Amino acid sequence: MALIAELVKELENDTIQNEDLIVCMKAYSYRVVVMAMFKAIERNYCNQRIVDRLAELSELLKHNKFLGPWQMGHVALATLALLDNENAKDKFYELFESLSENDKFLVDNFIKSESYKA
């Protein structure tokens, strides 16, 4: 398995293997985690490990501000919604139901903003 620094370089150069995206999603750097989420969306790559990790990250809805008004959890939930994968969609709907109206608004707004395409 590659070192995280090597994987970050591969993320930046768009040469990372799909299977290594989960390793990046477990990194300690929010930047790396979000880069991996955006790459998964771009490639529409998803497996059960990614669904599980995104569900874990979706709990970070306070004190984990990452991008504009969005917390890491909002970005993780949006990623689940944007992946064309039945397990990801099921998990998104399950988690989305329990959110506050404000958090639902932020997730919807993130999806509509298409910030993941930047």
Describe the structure concisely.
This protein has 118 residues and is mainly alpha-helical.
Give your account of this protein's structure.
- 64% of the residues lie in helices and 4% in strands.
- It has 118 residues and is mainly alpha-helical.
- The chain has one domain.
- The protein has a two-stranded antiparallel sheet.
- The longest helix is centred in the N-terminal third of the chain and has 14 residues.
- It is globular and about 40 Å long.
- The relative contact order is 0.13.
What structural keywords apply?
7 helices; single chain; 4% strand; 118 residues
What is the strand and helix layout of this fold?
Layout lengths: L3 H10 L7 H5 L4 H14 L4 H10 L7 E3 L2 E2 H11 L3 H12 L3 H13 L5
Helix pairs in contact: 3-5, 4-5, 5-6, 5-7
